[in-house]
Amino acid sequence: MSEKLIIFDTTLRDGEQSPGASMTKDEKVRIAKSLEKMKVDVIEAGFAIASKGDFEAVQAVAKAVKDSTICSLARALDKDIDRAGESIKNANSSRIHTFIATSDIHMKMKLGMTPDEVVSQAVRSVKRATKFTDNIEFSPEDAGRSDTDFLCRIIEAAINAGATTINIPDTVGYSIPFQFGNTMKELIERIPNSDKAIFSAHCHNDLGLAVSNSLSAVLNGARQIECTINGLGERAGNTSLEEVVMAVRTRQDVFGCDTNIDATGILAASRLVSSITGFVVQPNKAIVGANAFAHEAGIHQDGVLKHRETYEIMKAEDVGWNNNSLVLGKHSGRNAFKSRLSELGVEFESDEALNDAFSRFKTLADKKHDIFDEDLQALVSEAQTELTEIIRLVSLKVSAESGKVNTANVTLSINGDEHSASASTSGAVDATFNAVLSLVDIDPKLQLYSVSNVTQGTDSLGEVNVRLEHEGKVFNGQGVDTDIITSSAKAYVHALNKVMANVERAHPQI
Ligand code: KIV
Ligand code: ZN
Q1: For a Cys staple, 233 with which of 71, 238, 330, 368, CB 3.0–4.6 Å?
Q2: Does the pLDDT at position 374 exceed 80?
Q3: Which InterPro entries match (predicted)?
């Protein structure tokens, strides 16, 4: 039997630190539920002291998720630890993750502390965390550039104080695989009480080596990997969950350990994170990119048709791809709809929610002949995003002619009252956004506008992501429709709703 590799997902904390990837509480809960369904062992839900929004998001995730351990991040400070402890109070299973920098440059320039002070602060914080849970993780931040002797000293002290997981972060993505692996091995060998803790790798991707460094750590004794869906994260991102999980599973002969992850949930989680954050997945991204399993060259296609394993090392369906198989059509009933969504991991909380989603499905089926899983997921995602709307798109009429001025006539319901406006410019989307904006009192700055097709073909649903900045906060909105001008209007209205509700940006950069 192979040893277990713990998967610690930090999409909701380190992933969210990526500029523009801010998520609302409800969005975090939706992502957390999909991680739970995939059997992620530990979900780092946020940095509780960072903001009221972050604290409440951790609390909400701790309440909603039952099967994964919920972790809250804290600097090695009393007030951080107490806030983290409070945020996970209601979790079925909880963890506090506390960190302090250990590289010379960080201790001197950032903390202004001596190494002795850093050790005692780490010990004090780990001990304080034991008041809230016996599951404590300690990270020497910037370990990738820290002195190994000092790491041995502080980690031994942290384990003695009660740390049960020791995470080795390559905070600035500076490490090289053989070196990171050697450091992991040396720490485990030299620290006298290392057998009392699980060692973990937390790698950033600045040199494109996050996954390689994490795997090298596993080969050298790490039994937890910290990662994010789609590799989301600050700068070049974090270790990608889907890549490490599939590398370890596909090459059991090399790693000799495996995760508990139900990989068939990977694609759905990837799409959810991409749609909520507006961070589009590149087509050639391993495992979850649109081309990851597409064979174009004739010689490859021929080989795969004769014997799949000639060119395929994994099965697309094992990570959630379904070959775009037709799942439902115009005549499918409510039960077929419900049970297909249940297979995709979507459960409805009430009959009303099911009816609403089903009626969206029927409307779509009238416009689009073939309905795929991706369409269903997009529809449900849209239904969930509309739950807390202040403004709603009632109707949109656009006249567009090439080379001419385009005009958009928009009607919105704002707090229940209908208001209409029109605007004209050279582009239909621009005219639509201007018309919508003229009906509200705010003037946010558009940071991102992107369109992608949900399935193949010109009758595909078009998904639009809009990112707005307002008073220093960032708000993402999504919209789907078979008409991309309508998707654009929906996405814009969705983001404006968040601005108007003044959803606090749950962003842990403090
Ligand atoms: O990259 C890093 O050092 C971190 C720590 C908080 C673990 O994210
Ligand atoms: Zn990090």
Answers
A1: 238
A2: no
A3: 2-IPM_HCS-like, 2-isopropylmalate_synth_dimer, AIPM/Hcit_synth_CS, Aldolase_TIM, LeuA/HCS_post-cat, LeuA_allosteric_dom_sf, LeuA_bact_synth, PYR_CT
Average pLDDT value for the chain: 92
Fold identical between 3-277 and 391-500? no
Rounded average pLDDT over 208-235 = 98
Number of the ligand 1 atom closest to the C-alpha atom of 73: 6
Q: Is 0.85 topped by the overall pTM?
A: yes
Ligand 1 atom closest to Cα of 141?
Answer: 3
Collect all residues with Cβ–Cβ distance below 8 Å to 190 and sequence separation of at least 6.
152
Does 226 sit in the ligand 1 pocket, CB within 6 Å? no
pLDDT at 388 over 70: no
Listed by start position, the domains of the chain span 3-277, 322-386, 391-500
510 CB burial (10 A radius; 0-12, 13-18, 19+): exposed
Please give the Cα distance from 136 to 353 (Å, whole number): 39
Atom 6 (ligand 1) nearest CA: 99
202 annotated to a ligand binding site? yes
Question: Quick one: what percent of the chain has pLDDT higher than 70?
Answer: 95
Does ligand 1 lie within 6 Å of residue 16's CB atom? Answer: no
Q: What is the CATH number of domain 3-277?
A: 3.20.20.70
The best mutation among 17, 71, 139, 206 to test binding of ligand 1, ranked by most ligand atoms within 8 Å of the C-beta, falls on 139
| Residue predicted with more confidence, 355 or 141 | 141
* 392: three-class secondary structure by DSSP: strand
Is the Cβ atom of 169 under 6 angstroms away from ligand 1? Answer: yes
CA atoms within 13 A on the CB side of 333: 1
pLDDT(402) > 70: yes
User: Is domain 391-500 classified as CATH 3.30.160.270?
Assistant: yes
H or E element that contains 419: strand 417-425
CA separation for the pair 340, 334 (Å, rounded)? 10
Is 106 marked within a binding site?
no
pLDDT of residue 387 exceeding 60: no
- Which atom of ligand 1 lies closest to the CA of 17? 8
